[in-house]
Write a structure and sequence with these properties.
CATH topology: TIM Barrel
Number of domains: 1
Oligomer: single chain
Low-confidence stretches: none
Mean pLDDT: 88
Radius of gyration: 16 Å
Helix content: 25-40%
Strand content: 15-25%
Length: about 210
């Protein structure tokens, strides 16, 4: 069964609702974003998960690896989601070694699909596919062509968790699940009434769509 990650959390009540609905992951963005929170605030948000099995995801961009490690220690994360393009495999290994976390690397899918990103699968535990939008790391609400990358995904995903993001909404997520069979679907703006403010009915509708057969 495909798991769900609710990302871009800014309110504890939304974190608690994600856990109540059965999400496997919640994410706090600690890089440039309309939903950015400080590591200390991320720690407060994650505290709302106490007693649950939901994993805490810290989202980062091109910050130096030492800064990412420091932020993760303050926030308390189980997974690092890295959108930065400049990171080296040695930095991935340092993150995992010093923090003991799972590492997801983000691949931004544009017109060329996955052909120019084949090395991105090296040194990571998971690959998160998001939509390429110039000047943005993610959270744009735009979808990529899921079917166009389905074959490349099948060939490359062995040994990695596949996470799909980008323009997912309750109305579209089932199609993404059917075409790519991801391990995790990741939603932020698709269940919001405003940036960082989750709509609990849309969260519930999203979960129901993912679980539909």
């Amino acid at each position: 069964m495909t798991d769900v990650k609710f990302c871009g959390m800014t309110r504890a009540e939304d974190v608690r609702e994600a856990a109540r609905l059965g999400a496997a992951y919640v994410g706090a963005i600690m890089t440039e974003s309309a939903r950015r929170v400080a590591p200390e605030r991320a720690h407060e948000l994650f505290a709302a998960l106490e007693g649950s099995t939901v994993k805490r995801v810290g989202v980062f961009g091109d910050e130096p690896v030492a800064e990412v490690i420091h932020a993760c220690r303050i926030a308390g994360v189980d997974v690092v989601q890295w959108h930065g393009a400049a990171a080296l495999e040695s930095e991935f290994e340092r993150l995992k070694r010093e923090l003991g976390v799972e590492l997801w690397r983000v691949v931004r899918v544009g017109p060329s699909g996955l052909r120019r990103h084949r090395s991105a699968f090296d040194g990571t535990d998971g690959i998160l596919l998001d939509t390429f939008v110039k000047g943005a790391l993610g959270g744009t609400g735009s979808a990529f062509d899921w079917l166009s990358v389905a074959n490349d995904v099948r060939l490359r995903r062995v040994g990695h968790r596949l996470i799909v993001a980008g323009g997912l909404r309750p109305e579209t997520v089932r199609k993404a699940v059917d075409q790519l069979s991801p391990d995790v679907v990741d939603v932020s703006s698709g269940v919001e009434s405003a940036p960082g403010v989750k709509d609990h009915q849309r969260m519930a509708d999203f979960m129901a769509a993912v679980r539909a057969q």
